[in-house]
Amino acid sequence: MTTGPVSDRGFGPARHAELALLLEVAGTPKPGNVDRKRDLSDLHFEHFLTGAVGSASGLRLAEDGATVGAAFETAVEGMSRQGGGNTQFGCLLLLVPLVRAAAAGALSPDGVTDVVRSTTVDDAVSFYRAFEHVDVAVGDPPEDAPDLDVRRGAGAESALREQSLTLFDVMERSAERDANAREWAGGFERTFRAAESILEGDGPVTDRVARAFLDLLTEEPDTLVVTNHGEAVARDVMDRAAAVSDLDAAEELAESFVAEGINPGTTADIVCAATFVALERGVPL
Of 90, 115, 124, 137, which cross-links 97 as Cys (Cβ 3.0–4.6 Å)? Predict the structure, then answer.
């Protein structure tokens, strides 16, 4: 029997989040990122598939109402059980509060803002502890806050508790220099906007994901590119993405970025979150 695309899959938010992780890495081409056609030297397509499946237990915790920090740390620990290292840390940072909001029937900018604003100091401690499970490329902390360097992991707990910093506070402090933190602080604005483009697009969802990635890449410097290569390179990446007319042309850019070691991973995080929202809103597969 032949059927058409299905919008009502009967999946809960956790399963849609896991599916979003899979569809994000399957979206091709996403210049500079792992996709169906391209591996990086140390990160392979299979690592992302394994990381997506490994994160499922933490995503289920989020759906079941666990605290954001506990669900996130569990998801990251599960994600880390593959040989590539950090595959989806940033994706999970966005997905966990979105899953919580969706499970409460409030998947909207206001709904997810309520979730992130309700986070606690314990959530912040769990977030920092998650850095002990996998190496994450991050910039240096502000000069006046070395005790809050996320690379300290659990070693930062005393500073977090002394300053009574919730996880939302941590994200708000980081928003100026980190795009994922800006999503937390700004109602997940880019996430929901990109979700609309995926919903309204045509063709396979993996193509829509790739187009959404390219659109996001033209908007602002990618945080991971800035961290690894500097602001000037990140702005050049934006210009080169803006010059791409379609996915066929993006294939050449993808090869160039991989050869140059340019990996706009933060943009991929946001398109993954957008894919989750689109799935929850019924994008057909």
Answer: 115
DSSP at 139: P
Hey, how many other C-beta atoms are within 10 angstroms of the C-beta on 41?
A: 7
Could you tell me the CA-to-CA distances from 125 to 1, 63, 80, 161 in Å, in that order?
52, 21, 19, 8
Assigned fold of 13-275: Triphosphoribosyl-dephospho-CoA protein (1.10.4200)
Largest CA distance in the chain: 64
d(CA 166, CA 23): 32
Task: Give helix 189-200 / helix 205-217 axis angle, nearest 10°.
Answer: 140
Q: Which residues neighbour 168 within 8 Å (Cβ) at sequence distance 6 or greater? A: 116, 117, 118, 119, 184, 185
User: Where along the chain do its domains lie?
Assistant: 13-275
Token match 């090869």: residue? Answer: 255
For every residue of 105-136, DSSP letters joined together read T--SHHHHHHHHHT--HHHHHHHHHHTTTS--
Tell me the pTM: 0.96
C-alpha span between 154 and 98 (Å, rounded): 25
Element counts in the chain: helices (H) and strands (E): 16, 0
User: Tens digits of per-residue pLDDT, 205-245?
Assistant: 999 999 999 999 999 999 999 999 999 999 999 999 999 99
Q: What is the pLDDT of residues 102-157, one digit of tens each?
A: 999 999 999 999 999 999 999 999 999 999 999 998 888 877 778 999 999 999 99
